């Protein structure tokens, strides 16, 4: 005789239709464009061209030498559909990828380009999913040198799966209501702010991005918020100021001396001046990544760590470029002291003098180090910068 639960299960299996697989990006693949979306317009006859990146506003139009395209003609269409200008030129509408968005958005500073940002995120070896919520402390990444916000977006995308779905609020106001309605003494904006704050307290992965320039930070915030209606924006906390001062303020507000950062990425001049303050805040085995345009700046980092006996172990130094990567050998060595002396036959004075000179030279070179900076065997690259990666050690 079958168990009653087994009969129920069979009945459910026969009555329910087969479940269809859903993918995270499917909503953006076939959705209709809305007011506020960012799209790319490319001429249908020249699909290889970068195209024009525009933010849709129902009351606005895009103008060029091939005519005018009202944004209202684009709103409601789906990706890959076409629209015509006032002069008859046909354009295809595209949903920008993250790489295209970074390249085509207006900039105040030069961004880290997609090929390099993808590699940097890959080297950080970030692994998160919904089970990250069971961990005792959230994964926190510090990016110092927000710049354009390109790496910020890539880092936020990498950790996005660890956080709960973004909180949604119901909008009670209509287009005819210029002001927020008030419910129970709180406006809609107040309710949205409190809902967002509660959601932030539940995050299991956070990107802290910091820039010394308030202007650059504000611009980067708009860039991050503008990609696909801010899908990755809530994972990021923006800060302005000095990195060492920010770490000190965080330790004060958290009321603990325990490390709280999983990884640290520095893209700023004089990065080595902050190593001592970063070490206590970085988890053991966490990565310290430094991006600089010159190999000599990476050398300065290596020398600072060695001279001050900081708890970092050099993992690798690589050269970033447009084509491929080339690993560099950057290390401090003690050169062997060599002394050639000429001795006169039958004379011991020359030998004694040579021995004394050799001892003095050896003593002097005990504290001297030389830096080796040379590319390892690999492919030739053009352009790019240099990335140094150090692991935080428990002790030196």
Quick tags:
396 residues, alpha+beta, Vcp-like ATPase, Chain A, domain 2, Rossmann fold, 9-stranded mixed beta sheet, 4-stranded antiparallel beta sheet, 11 helices, globular
Describe what you observe in this structure.
The structure is a single chain. The chain is α+β, with helices and mostly antiparallel strands. Among the domains are: 37-96, Vcp-like ATPase, Chain A, domain 2; 99-129 and 136-165 and 187-324 and 382-392, Rossmann fold, CATH 3.40.50.150. It is 29% helix and 24% strand. It is built from 11 helices and 17 strands. The chain has helices at residues 4-15, 26-29, 98-104, 114-124, 150-159, 188-200, 214-226, 243-254, 275-278, 295-307, 349-365, and strands at 38-43, 52-55, 61-64, 67-70, 82-84, 90-94, 139-144, 182-183, 186-187, 205-211, 236-240, 261-266, 282-292, 312-319, 326-333, 370-375, 386-392. The strands form 4 sheets. A 9-stranded mixed β-sheet has the order 11-10-7-12-13-17-14-15-16, sandwiched between helices. Strands 2-1-6-5 form a 4-stranded antiparallel β-sheet, with no helix packed on it. It has a two-stranded antiparallel sheet with strand order 3-4. Strand 1 and strand 2 form a beta hairpin. Helix 4 (114-124) crosses helix 5 (150-159). The longest helix is centred in the last third of the chain and has 17 residues, at 349-365. 26% of the residues are buried. The model is unreliable at 4-24, 170-175, 338-344 and 378-383 (pLDDT under 50). Keywords: Methyltransferase, Transferase. Residues 339-360 are annotated as: Disordered. This is tRNA (adenine(58)-N(1))-methyltransferase catalytic subunit TRM61.
């Amino acid at each position: 005789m079958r168990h009653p639960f087994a009969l129920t299960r069979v009945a459910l299996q026969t009555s329910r239709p087969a479940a269809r697989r859903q993918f995270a990006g499917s909503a953006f693949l076939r959705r209709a464009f809305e007011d506020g979306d960012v799209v790319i317009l490319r001429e249908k006859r020249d699909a290889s061209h970068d195209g024009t990146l525009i933010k849709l506003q129902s009351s606005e139009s895009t103008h060029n030498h091939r005519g005018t395209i009202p944004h209202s003609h684009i709103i409601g269409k789906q990706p890959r559909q076409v629209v015509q200008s006032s002069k008859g030129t046909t354009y295809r509408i595209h949903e920008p990828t993250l790489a295209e968005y970074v390249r085509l958005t207006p900039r105040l500073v030069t961004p880290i380009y997609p090929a390099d940002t993808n590699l940097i995120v890959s080297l950080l070896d970030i692994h998160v999913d919904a089970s990250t919520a069971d961990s005792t402390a959230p994964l926190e990444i510090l990016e110092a040198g927000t710049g354009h916000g390109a790496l910020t977006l890539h880092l936020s995308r990498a950790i996005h799966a660890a956080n709960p779905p973004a909180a949604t609020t119901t909008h009670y106001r209509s287009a005819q209501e210029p002001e927020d309605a008030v419910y129970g003494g709180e406006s809609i904006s107040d309710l949205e702010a409190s809902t967002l704050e509660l959601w932030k307290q539940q995050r299991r992965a956070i990107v802290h991005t910091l820039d010394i320039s308030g202007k650059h930070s504000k611009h980067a915030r708009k860039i991050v918020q503008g990609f696909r209606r801010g899908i990755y924006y809530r994972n990021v906390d923006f800060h302005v100021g000095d990195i060492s001062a920010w770490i000190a303020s965080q330790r004060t507000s958290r009321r603990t001396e325990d490390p709280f950062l999983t990884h640290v990425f520095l893209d700023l001049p004089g990065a080595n001046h902050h190593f001592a303050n970063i070490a206590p805040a970085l988890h053991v085995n966490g990565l310290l990544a430094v991006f600089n345009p010159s190999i000599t700046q990476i050398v300065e980092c290596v020398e600072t760590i060695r001279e001050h006996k900081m708890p970092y172990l050099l993992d690798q130094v690589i050269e970033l470029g447009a084509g491929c990567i080339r690993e560099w050998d950057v290390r401090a060595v003690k050169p062997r002291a060599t002394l050639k002396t000429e001795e006169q036959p039958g004379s011991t004075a020359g030998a004694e003098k040579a021995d004394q000179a050799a001892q003095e030279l050896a003593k002097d070179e005990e504290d001297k180090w030389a830096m080796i900076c040379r590319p390892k065997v690999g492919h030739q690259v053009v352009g790019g910068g240099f990335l140094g990666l150090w692991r935080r050690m428990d002790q030196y």
